[in-house]
Amino acid sequence: MDRQAIEPEAARGPVRPMGIAATLVANLLVFVVVGYAAALNALDPDSYYLSVQEDEYLEWATFWAFLVAAGGFVAAARGQRRATGALPWFLFGVGLFCLFVALEEISWGQRLLGYRPPSYFLAHNYQQEFNIHNVVQGTLRKLALKSVILGYGVLLPLAGLVPAMGQLISRLAVVPPPPQLIPAFLAAFFTYQVYPWRFSGELVELMLGLGFLFCALEGIRSFRQDGAAAEKLMRRLGPLVVAWLAVIGLGVGQAGLTRMQRAAHPESVAAARAETQALKQDFVAMARRNGGHPATACGLHKRVYTFVQHYDKDYLRRGSFVGLTAQGLPQERAAFFIDPWNSPYWVRHRCAQKDRARRIFVYSFGPNRRRDSSRWEILGDDIGTVILEEGRVPRERAQR
Question: By the 8 A CB rule, do 53 and 267 touch?
């Protein structure tokens, strides 16, 4: 019997239609991310600022989207192997890529577990985290993200629609994304290109993760032997909606779990308080050397190590904070301005022209290793100290 007669339709070509309803729902579920961000930023900027922070629900939803997508692509690769006999190198490779992105998103568990990354990442990663993508130059990193969005999500499915290219792609065992998902990938690309709000990159990462997740689901569907049953299941849109709800739900749940304060050793809390006081002394001393003017400027919000590197403030390397090494502060923490929980110390300088207010403070994320403070106040279990305060400082609601 002719093998082509018994193989599923997906085995004979790289592209298989999703159906109108599934197409609309899949794209809508990606567009919802942008719509939600636009509404939240307009109605409650503080909540928007909170949502795009590290270890918040958007980041965790992105992690789960890529992680579930990785498993989906591996399942699709197995289905391709059974259906066609071809080596499913492409789907398996995309699955590994999604797994890599998922782990990069959470810095390979650094903030979750609280371990100190190797010195190379403390020195060359501007976030001082254990991940590779933030070591790469910003221009190359942006180019790589745009290339993935357009190359995988737009150009590859369009190539599959061209008969000659489609046949070549099929022979190479490459499975392109459904062309019906091109609007979702284009939405991610244009959001990144326009960057309508601060931290729009976090939204793009979630949109891209959802795009890969829906592609994985389509890959599983395409290589199922019981095509009729799979088609019936997809008409109910169950997999798409369930996957979206699962990813968002896991993101919200994981963020809630990380909000639960981890055990705070009194010695570490006391050390952080002493270290932020030492940093305050250093910044005050720099101001005196600068004729009484702060060494920082309105709007500054940086990791102390980044501040030292970017503005060539080598004085901090010889100040009171580094001097704490004589009292037991580990040399590596002193060199990279790391707190007892292996997270960076931060310096923030806020100004409000309306009230002529100004506040400068240094702080640590504290035992839970995540930012609880607002733009004006040290909140939650964050540990810090105010360096300078002038005028009537605006009071913001707690962000946790």
Answer: no
The neighbouring-strand residues paired with 363 are: 346, 384
| Max CA distance (Å), the chain | 90
Note the pLDDT tens digit of each residue in 256-286: 666 554 555 788 899 999 999 999 999 999 8
What is the rounded distance in angstroms from the CA atom of residue 270 to the CA atom of residue 147? Answer: 47
Q: Cβ contacts of residue 173 below 8 Å, gap of 6+?
A: 80, 84, 86, 87, 88, 89, 90
Q: What residue has token string 């503080």?
A: 46
pTM for this model (two decimals): 0.70
Distance CA 54, CA 46 (A): 15
Q: Burial level of 158, CB count in 10 A (0-12/13-18/19+)? A: middle
| Residue found under tokens 């989207």 | 65
Does 248 or 200 have the greater pLDDT score? 200
CA distance 145 to 157: 18
Q: What is the pLDDT of residues 319-335, one digit of tens each?
A: 999 999 988 888 888 89
Query: How many Cβ atoms sit within 10 Å of the Cβ of residue 266?
Result: 7
Side chain identity at residue 272, one-letter code: A
Positions of E strands within the chain: 301-303, 346-352, 357-364, 383-390
